[in-house]
Amino acid sequence: MQNMIETLGVALGDRSYPIHIGTGLLKRLDLILPHIKQKKVVVVTNTTVAPLYLAMLRSTLESGGISVLPVVLPDGEQFKTWETLNQIFDALLGSRCERGTTLISLGGGVIGDMGGFAAACYQRGMPFIQVPTTLLSQVDSSVGGKTAINHPLGKNMIGAFYQPKLVLADISTLNTLPERELKAGLAEVIKYGLIRDPAFFAWLEEHLEKLLARDASALTYAIHRSCANKSEVVAADERETGERALLNLGHTFGHAIETGMGYGEWLHGEAVAAGTLIAAELSHRMGWLDQNALERIERIFVRAGLPVFGPRLGAARYLELMSHDKKVQDGKLRLVLLKDIGKAVVSDQASDAQIGAAIEARCT
Ligand code: NAD
Ligand code: GLY
């Protein structure tokens, strides 16, 4: 008997695609095969994930007569660079991959973002499949088509919107995920509650310990609900001309932390957690978010074992790093702030002095 799977979709017309969530999905040729057009695929992964899951995915594909070219990259946010991206192109060209060859990203958000960007560029676009293996990538980065590499001056600054054909989220892979990475993923899960789903936030307050204990049904529910929120937003605003910006709650501060501390020092989810608390602090100081809501937000991040204070880089350095943010318009910084739990807005109303004061209050 096959394990239960849940399926939802991202509705983007003829570029719509399914997201399958469940256990044992790396073995499900029937779910993958309909999305592959040629007899050869490239699997982009890294030195940590390859020994864990490459053989399993490979044997599934080979059982369907598909040959697999593995591309195993170094592991880490510090390798999300041009140089590493070029290793993918070297492998694709070296083994004569065609425009119709499918590229599969097997790994966390770093591999997903880099593989996706390579797929967007190679011969101006080859088919792409996301097989996310971290909580963060299953709830966020594998869905929605944002692909990128980092630049020394800013996170995810070079990239493309490029949608996958399929997202296969096998929650069995989360059993090998280090504790710190699981917690980092929870930051993006909590985000959906904060920006648009207050009932989900309340559910998380009740079930956080189950998620930390990797309870399969709690994880499936949280991943499903996160993906449902994300796919609704992406379907409404694929290119981030409006609502999609709300998915960046805490990210403007968080990206400043990641870049300012050196890529890989703070995990993305950790930086987003501290950044969310700075955004909540600022929202409170602007009179938008009440004390009770601020305390609820701080409490859930503390319970998730995530940082609620950023590193003390100095407000001026934060503001300098944040000036590269992709939401800057006509030189003016726009931030995602909270009016309440479940209600986020994009605002340019906070002055540098107000932003600086919130940063100083929320950094240690
Ligand atoms: P990651 O890709 O670095 O993975 C975290 C660590 O876990 C790595 O060491 C990885 O090798 C390891 N790993 C992966 N799966 C594993 C498994 N099943 N068992 C054991 N170890 C495993 O980090 P992440 O948190 O998945 O992703 C963060 C990245 O995602 C950042 O670069 C961020 O910018 C990006 N991101 C992109 C989007 C988007 O919309 N495209 C959204 C959010 C974040
Ligand atoms: N992670 C933000 C987005 O996909 O828009």
What do these coordinates show?
The chain has 364 residues and is an alpha/beta fold. The chain folds into two domains: 5-176, Rossmann fold (3-Layer(aba) Sandwich), CATH 3.40.50; 179-361, Dehydroquinate synthase-like - alpha domain (Dehydroquinate synthase-like, alpha domain), CATH 1.20.1090. The protein has 13 helices and eleven strands. The protein has helices at residues 29-32, 50-62, 82-94, 109-121, 135-141, 179-196, 198-212, 216-236, 251-261, 268-285, 291-303, 315-322, 352-361, and strands spanning 5-10, 17-22, 40-46, 67-73, 102-107, 128-132, 146-151, 154-161, 166-170, 335-340, 343-347. The strands form three sheets. The protein has a seven-stranded mixed sheet with strand order 1-2-9-6-5-3-4, sandwiched between helices. A two-stranded antiparallel sheet has the order 7-8. Strand 5, helix 4 (109-121) and strand 6 form a beta-alpha-beta unit. The longest helix has 21 residues, at 216-236. Bound molecules: nicotinamide-adenine-dinucleotide and glycine. Glycine (GLY) binds next to loops. Nicotinamide-adenine-dinucleotide binds next to helix 4, helix 5, helix 6 and helix 10.
Hetero compounds: nicotinamide-adenine-dinucleotide, glycine
First CA to last CA: what distance? 53 Å
Instruction: Give the helix proportion (percent range).
Output: 40-55%
Overall CATH architecture of the largest domain? Up-down Bundle
CATH topology of the largest domain: Dehydroquinate synthase-like, alpha domain
- The overall number of domains is 2
Task: Give the CATH level 1 class of the largest domain.
Answer: Mainly Alpha
Radius of gyration: 20 Å
- Tally the helices: 13
CATH homologous superfamily descriptor of the largest domain: Dehydroquinate synthase-like - alpha domain
